[in-house]
Amino acid sequence: MNRFLYFAGFAYVALCGAVLARKLGVGHSGRAVTVDPVVAVAPPPVPATGGEQWFAAMKPFCNQVEVDVRTRFTPPPATSEGSGFSAACFALAGKIDRARTIIEAMPARDRGAAANVLFNVAHPVADAGDDRASGPMMELVLDYWPNNYMALYHAGMSEYSLGQTALAETHLRAFLGMYNAADGFTGAARAALQKIEEGNGTLLRVRKPAEQEPASKP
């Protein structure tokens, strides 16, 4: 009798083990559970109800490392405003040629609007004092909006800080021809032009003695 109970108990335990193993190895649908391989996950899409909303969500990623991937998975709205903000995002990332390509792909009638979007993005950067970073963006604005006097100013000051005195002089003189308010912008532009003129004068004084030397006798 005891032997019979022993075998009955052993059979019950084995049956429970088999049922448990089947539950663990089979999903609710009756198919065997498998582990999917690890795959790259795309960035979550950015809601894009308009160009400005798209840019607000994308701005943290407008840098050289992330801008290409993010805009590939979350493209801007297919509008002139969307293209303008897309160009601005690439310009903020320092990819000026890519920004220009985006604007050039637009109909000619829409490029001025894109330049306006780009200017509105670059202007706060310039007003914060970072003329070097904003300068290339302002130069791109001038390609499509040449009479934007603030773009002329910021481009000129950027060029002046980089030692590009010929371009700086051209842009700053054009700025002063359009804007004559007695404020910090005109003061800074005139001070930069004065420094450029002094530098040009110094170069002339260095050359003058050599030019006045008598011709050597044969």
Structural class: mainly alpha
User: Uncertain runs with pLDDT below 50, 5 residues or more?
Assistant: 1-8, 32-43, 202-218
Helical region count?
10
Mean of all residue-level pLDDT scores: 79
Main sheet characteristics: none
| Structural shape | elongated
Number of strands: 0
Radius of gyration: 34 Å
Helix and strand succession?
Answer: HHHHHHHHHH
Estimate percent helicity.
55-70%
How would you summarize what this structure contains?
This protein has helices spanning 2-25, 51-58, 67-73, 80-92, 96-104, 108-127, 131-144, 149-161, 165-178, 184-212.
Structure description:
The protein is mainly α. Among the domains are: 83 residues; 48 residues, no CATH class. The chain is built from ten helices and no strands. Helix 2 packs parallel to helix 4 and helix 4 crosses helix 6.
List the SSEs and their pairings.
Layout: H1 2-25, H2 51-58, H3 67-73, H4 80-92, H5 96-104, H6 108-127, H7 131-144, H8 149-161, H9 165-178, H10 184-212
Helix pairs in contact: 2-4, 4-5, 4-6, 6-7, 7-8, 8-9, 8-10, 9-10
